[in-house]
Amino acid sequence: MEAEHTSLLATPHLWVNIALLVFIVVAGPKLWKALASTLDQRSLRIKNSLDEAQKLRDEAQALLNEYQRRQKEAAKEAEGIIAAAKELATHHTQEAMAALEASMARREKLALEKIAQAEAHAAAEVRREAVEVATAATRKLLAQTLTDERSTALVDQSIKELDRKLH
After folding, report:
1. Average pLDDT for residues 57-79, to the nearest whole number?
2. Which residues of 29-54 are buried (b: 16+ CB within 10 A; e: fewer)?
3. Contact 14, 8 (CB under 8 A)
4. pTM for the whole thing?
């Protein structure tokens, strides 16, 4: 049996296995700590990345909510502006219609006044023309009927009455 025993210690596989076992016993805990530390660091980096991603997602959601709120406020404000503009346009339209009606009334009044003036002028012109025709007819009639003596007597009588008629 010794021969087998000796031969077992002489085999390189046994020494490699023993060396591996010694290496694992001596270096194993250090390697395990290093491997665990590396895995823990990687786990922390992943956890930090996930936390940062969650934080960014929360911030993005908050910004989205804020922008949606602002959009609703802007839509309400736009509706208010549109309503105010419509009301203002209606008001200006009413004012313009009132101003147009007043302007038309003034123009109608001016046209009526011009027509009245033209009528008065035409009537005065007709009267003047009638007076001239009547005066011309009277002269003609007087010239035919009056003699020189009679006309001198009429002129003298008119001069005497002139002082009384003027005062």
Report:
1. 96
2. eeeeeeeeeeeeeeeeeeeeeeeeee
3. yes
4. 0.42
